UniProtKB/TrEMBL annotation:
<keyword id="KW-0687">Ribonucleoprotein</keyword>
<dbReference type="InterPro" id="IPR022973">
    <property type="entry name" value="Ribosomal_uL10_bac"/>
</dbReference>
<keyword id="KW-0699">rRNA-binding</keyword>
<dbReference type="GO" id="GO:0070180">
    <property type="term" value="F:large ribosomal subunit rRNA binding"/>
</dbReference>
<protein>
    <recommendedName>
        <fullName>Large ribosomal subunit protein uL10</fullName>
    </recommendedName>
</protein>
<comment type="function">
    <text>Forms part of the ribosomal stalk, playing a central role in the interaction of the ribosome with GTP-bound translation factors.</text>
</comment>
<dbReference type="InterPro" id="IPR047865">
    <property type="entry name" value="Ribosomal_uL10_bac_type"/>
</dbReference>
<dbReference type="GO" id="GO:1990904">
    <property type="term" value="C:ribonucleoprotein complex"/>
</dbReference>
<dbReference type="InterPro" id="IPR001790">
    <property type="entry name" value="Ribosomal_uL10"/>
</dbReference>
<keyword id="KW-0689">Ribosomal protein</keyword>
<dbReference type="GO" id="GO:0005840">
    <property type="term" value="C:ribosome"/>
</dbReference>
<dbReference type="GO" id="GO:0006412">
    <property type="term" value="P:translation"/>
</dbReference>
<keyword id="KW-0694">RNA-binding</keyword>
<comment type="similarity">
    <text>Belongs to the universal ribosomal protein uL10 family.</text>
</comment>
<comment type="subunit">
    <text>Part of the ribosomal stalk of the 50S ribosomal subunit. The N-terminus interacts with L11 and the large rRNA to form the base of the stalk. The C-terminus forms an elongated spine to which L12 dimers bind in a sequential fashion forming a multimeric L10(L12)X complex.</text>
</comment>
<dbReference type="Pfam" id="PF00466">
    <property type="entry name" value="Ribosomal_L10"/>
</dbReference>
<dbReference type="InterPro" id="IPR043141">
    <property type="entry name" value="Ribosomal_uL10-like_sf"/>
</dbReference>
Amino acid sequence: MGRKSYIPTDVGSFNLPNVGIFIYLPKPIGGETVSEKAIAAKQLVVDEIKEKIENAKSVTLVGFDRMDVKEITDLRNKFRESESEYKVYKNTMMRFAFQELGYDQLIDELKGSNALIFSNEDLVNGPKVAVDYTKEGDEQKEKLVLKAGLVEGNYQTGDQMMAIATLPPTEVLHSMLANVLQAPIRRLAGDLNNTLAKIAYALDAVREKKEQAGE
């Protein structure tokens, strides 16, 4: 008969069933139990997720399925080139992080295998790489799904994240906005110059009439 291995039923104890022996294993002096170390390690992961979310311009929650190692590696490289980061976490770790940050809407999307895309330099970059991948074919569209996200800390649906992916880079958007805001100012300046020119013309005409009248 093969040997049976008995796993401790609780941290700090070791129970041999049907033998009547119970061995208590005290906590090491100055050390941590296995359970405490595991909890501390998980908290580090949760803290990492929270920190990355708080520092990112945008965060995209994506579901992935049937992606092999090469596909994931290639996709990670594309995100890295766009100054974004693609990282897979356990749903439980993401759930704790979302709860602590108050993003309960994201928790509802934690079904199946999921990853987070952190856009650290431009909020458009991460979603754009993901959407471009899904456009490569029907198979890719099924393998990677944009579920939801955050832009500057505000919740966005999957469709909204896909729409954001179609926007030009933030720098271009700022330039476009500046042009829109400056257009009325330029128009006002032009109108003012025209008005001043008309006043100057009218005053000049009055002066000429007075000179002709000998005044």
